[in-house]
Amino acid sequence: MNFKNIAIIGVGLIGSSFALSLKARGFSGRITGIGRNEDNLLRAEEMGIIDAHTTVHAEGVRNADLVLLASPVGRFEQIINDVRHELKAGAIVTDVGSVKAGVIRILEPLMPPGVNFVGGHPIAGKECSGIDAATADLFTGARCIITPSPRTDREALDTVVGMWEEIGSRTLLMNPEEHDLIFAAVSHLPHVVAYALVNTIIDVDGGILHHGGNGLRDMTRIALSPAELWRDICIYNREEILGILRKFSSYMSRIIKLMEETDWSGLEKEFARAKEARRSIEPDQHKK
Amino acid sequence: MNFKNIAIIGVGLIGSSFALSLKARGFSGRITGIGRNEDNLLRAEEMGIIDAHTTVHAEGVRNADLVLLASPVGRFEQIINDVRHELKAGAIVTDVGSVKAGVIRILEPLMPPGVNFVGGHPIAGKECSGIDAATADLFTGARCIITPSPRTDREALDTVVGMWEEIGSRTLLMNPEEHDLIFAAVSHLPHVVAYALVNTIIDVDGGILHHGGNGLRDMTRIALSPAELWRDICIYNREEILGILRKFSSYMSRIIKLMEETDWSGLEKEFARAKEARRSIEPDQHKK
Q1: Residues of chain A positioned with their CB less than 8 A from the CB of B253
Q2: Where are the domains of chain A?
Q3: What ipTM does this complex have?
């Protein structure tokens, strides 16, 4: 790692785990945690996750060689507007947001001369948030999508790729628009559906949720994710998410129609092809 | 346990785990496994899960004090028609089906004089099926819903309740119709949605499913459940499942509308109330 000073804006699960991952690999530079909640930053510093902290964003980034944006996506623009004049020439700004095209479109033009932005998305969330859930191996073996745009500096790109690989991630380059289309389907849709499942059930009767078994708990675990974070993702990836939500709704109508028409073999076929596809991504297939 | 001979029809995950649970608690009687797949039954016998086996259902139940129906719900009627004349007086027939009202309506009138049916539903599935996934503690601490009808014999009811408690389940009596309404929401809906999520995603592009993270894997794990089983549940609980699917669809339309109208605070409120409700059923809440 060639960085001496790293600033992490947003010291939550991802930001903290990033810091712990660096330290676990012997990073000897200084990590400054930046955020709005001083108590949280103080705790992170006491726990040795970060070396210094500040709630004044512009101050925190002043000497940073690398700035990692790890707050909810919707705050990125304001943050960069607040800190851009303090970013030093040669610094790299990167992020961990679940949406890429919209973020890149907004942030790239805000970078001062000599500062490069590279968009990234580590596929390593969990439903718990905050520094207590952070671990040094959250990114180990996990994929991290890096989304260069036509304006991305190649050297900065290589540096960011190298950084994620150094902490154990398997990086993958992807076009930002392709990223947003794919993740609308495989991540954003499931999150919205998890919230929708819980609300549908409690709207029937608030007391019945506890009757659910492990299946329901597994299916709705990601409904524990922060509401603000997912609101922001819906804002920034609105078109793609609306597109996949409409497809999902049409598909649900098709299932309802099969049941209305008592087309049981049609219904079984739909279930069977889903099962088959789901098996293909199951790591431990021998018992299924 | 006062039974000497137990017949388990359907030696899969639930049937095998039931047998293993009995044996782990010192059951000294004889357990006969009955099914259509002789290889599976032979293996179960070799593994010590069952003591004897047959593919001739009527033969298998002849001396049974207890008959446990653990095959997909849609086969129950045919099975009982095949074996009813061999059931001995005083025998109890019970089941583990995820649907209760329809099963009870069909099976109760088929019971010969002196044979009592008691409906049951252990909340203890997992996404893996078959004897290799079976364990002696699948039901330990798990709920088991017992659904007496107006025709249910009280002594047989007590016996079935006692049996599930003896193998570690926490039993709960519930009206069959209430059961079917609740489980349409907390179990059947999530299963159908899991299948629907997978199919929606692969209908966009068959190759993108592997991009999903743990969230998607958790959410679609129950899509690994046998298609025939869930087709049968949809057949037997058609009205309740259609009702909750329609509610879920309306709710999805509401979410789509919020996004179309860019009502982001409305959307965040929906996500937040789902998160709050989901937290209430999280056993380990301190980190959330």
Answers
A1: 249
A2: 5-174, 246-288
A3: 0.89
